[in-house]
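Practice problem 4.
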């Protein structure tokens, strides 16, 4: 260049060009390093899987999976946008035992004795440690118990501590797959790349035993208490006689025969001592390579039948129904749609091209060929049927909230394109003609979480049933209760909660008679200050003011389903638990 000045001038003039070239080179290097790291992570994880070495598989899979989480912006979304981790849904961090409950209105009858239970999602891992996108169905199960005896109530709560919970508690991070992760193109990558590597570790060795039992509680005919989640096997809980607190025990797979998910809503016929259940999957599973299965359990707790159900594809079939003659299963229009998921929508979407079907299966059947499907002639959806019975002419009648196509809301929906207004309807299936007809009973209420008095399941002549009702807003945030008259075919009454209060599922507590409205409708209410109460409404009068209000001593997050176990059933559960031990 000839001189120091000319070299300095050249350097100054070419600095922008050299900076750009350097940045491009570093980006290539960084990209290569990232790809190399991902490749090494995959190889290391596969080695850990093949050799069954968790100490290799877990950290390497986490590195790969958390890289994808960052692409999904999962931590920030959980922290700032996810409505199911904030407000009334925010998880609690402590367990309590036998805390005194103050009765702030009314009086608990001395003759009312038993335990009220409510289960729901309560994630052990919270943001920022919860680096994986979270869905309302993903939270670890927590059971809230209110033990009532001699006019006094006490409160306890317990996590459902299965092997998955214990593993993540020790790890201090979320590891197992979550529904919320199945989102966008990155969710598809997780589904096929990291989910298989994260489904089983240590004692959580099978897919059906590595779920989160957080959805429902059912007392089986043999007095075992099951915590349920429709992605896995039932998990056995044991209740403390004095406090009602639920201790965790183990999964029930009937010696490995149950290799397919059981739904969260088996039906128990208390009169006959039988339990019937179904299960569904988003891809073929189990030895039968099925999308839906049906089974039954006898009065001693033995698995009596278990066989595949022929369906048209993967669908959201959350619940079933029962009559004296039939178990009723569904093949509805809310479907598993990966292409919609890639667009950033829910894993379930409305399929307007799929005609809803209702299946009738004789209760004693052990043959899939006995199932008859009946075409509803149009797309429909349902989540929780209210009740079903057999008519003298052979028809089967169902009362259930029906969902229809709708415009999408801005707030996250469980089912995209459906259903911002579930309408209580009477559905009639005629086995003789093959016809399915329905009548919408009420067009005004968005009704869900259907319940009747549990000991009347499967029986004809049940007059009253109950639901919560929602308005515009977040799914599961109920603004009131509805009482339905299935004899007069109408909405009998409704109760609207005070402003700022949301409620949960209406759980029926029998008291004072054998009728379908002899007792209380119980639900947990949460106000806008996140204070919780257990309210008992008079089911007969359906007065707006609860007959009894109990102020719960600690914050109780919003949740899913509950049950009432009376004193006789509780004592039998405790006694048989001791015998099994």
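Answer key:
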């Amino acid at each position: 260049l000839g001189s120091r000045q000319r070299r300095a001038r050249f350097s100054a003039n070419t600095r922008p060009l050299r900076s750009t070239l350097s940045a491009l080179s570093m980006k290539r290097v960084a990209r290569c390093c990232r790809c190399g790291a991902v490749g090494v992570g995959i190889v290391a994880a596969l080695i850990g899987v093949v050799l069954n070495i968790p100490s290799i598989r877990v950290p390497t899979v986490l590195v790969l999976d958390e890289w994808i989480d960052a692409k999904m912006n999962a931590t920030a979304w959980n922290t700032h946008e996810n409505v199911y981790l904030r407000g009334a849904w925010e998880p609690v961090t402590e367990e309590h035992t036998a805390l005194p409950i103050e009765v702030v209105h009314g009086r608990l009858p001395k003759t009312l004795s038993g335990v009220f239970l409510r289960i729901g999602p309560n994630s052990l891992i919270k943001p920022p440690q919860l680096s994986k996108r979270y869905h309302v169905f993903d939270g670890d199960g927590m059971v809230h118990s209110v033990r009532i005896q001699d006019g006094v109530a006490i409160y306890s709560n317990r996590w459902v501590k299965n092997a998955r919970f214990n593993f993540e508690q020790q790890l201090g991070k979320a590891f197992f797959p979550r529904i919320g992760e199945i989102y966008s193109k990155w969710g598809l990558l997780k589904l096929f790349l990291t989910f298989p590597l994260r489904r089983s570790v240590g004692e959580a060795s099978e897919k059906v035993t590595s779920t989160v039992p957080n959805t429902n509680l059912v007392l089986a005919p043999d007095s075992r208490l099951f915590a349920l989640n429709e992605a896995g096997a039932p998990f056995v809980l044991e209740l403390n006689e004095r406090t009602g607190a639920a201790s965790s025990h183990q999964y029930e797979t009937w010696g490995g025969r149950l290799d397919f998910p059981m739904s969260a809503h088996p039906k128990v016929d208390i009169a006959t001592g039988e339990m019937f259940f179904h299960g569904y999957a988003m891809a073929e599973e189990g030895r039968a390579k099925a999308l839906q299965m049906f089974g039954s359990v006898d009065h001693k707790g033995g698995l009596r039948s278990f066989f595949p159900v022929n369906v048209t594809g993967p669908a959201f079939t959350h619940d079933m129904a029962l009559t004296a003659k039939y178990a009723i299963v569904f093949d509805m229009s809310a479907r598993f749609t990966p292409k919609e998921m890639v667009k950033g929508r829910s894993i379930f979407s409305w399929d307007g091209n799929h005609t809803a079907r209702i299946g009738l299966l004789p209760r004693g059947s052990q043959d899939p060929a006995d199932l008859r499907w009946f075409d509803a002639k149009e797309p429909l959806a349902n989540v929780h049927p209210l009740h079903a019975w057999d008519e003298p002419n052979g028809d089967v009648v169902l009362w259930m909230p029906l969902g229809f196509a709708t415009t999408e809301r801005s707030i996250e929906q469980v089912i995209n394109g459906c259903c911002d207004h579930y309408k209580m309807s009477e559905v009639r299936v005629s086995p003789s003609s093959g016809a399915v007809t329905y009548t919408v009973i009420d067009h005004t209420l968005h009704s869900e979480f259907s319940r009747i008095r549990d000991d009347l399941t499967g029986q004809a002549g049940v007059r009253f049933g109950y639901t919560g009702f929602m308005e515009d807003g977040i799914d599961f945030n109920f603004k009131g209760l509805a009482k339905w008259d299935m004899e007069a075919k109408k909405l009998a009454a409704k109760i609207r909660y005070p402003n700022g209060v949301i409620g949960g599922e209406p759980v029926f507590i029998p008291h004072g008679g054998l009728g379908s409205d002899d007792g209380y409708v119980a639900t947990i209410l949460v106000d806008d200050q996140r204070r919780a109460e257990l309210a008992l409404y008079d089911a007969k009068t359906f007065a707006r003011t609860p007959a009894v209000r109990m102020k719960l001593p600690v914050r109780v997050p919003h949740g899913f389903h509950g049950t009432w176990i009376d004193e006789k059933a509780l004592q039998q559960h405790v006694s048989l638990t001791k015998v099994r031990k």
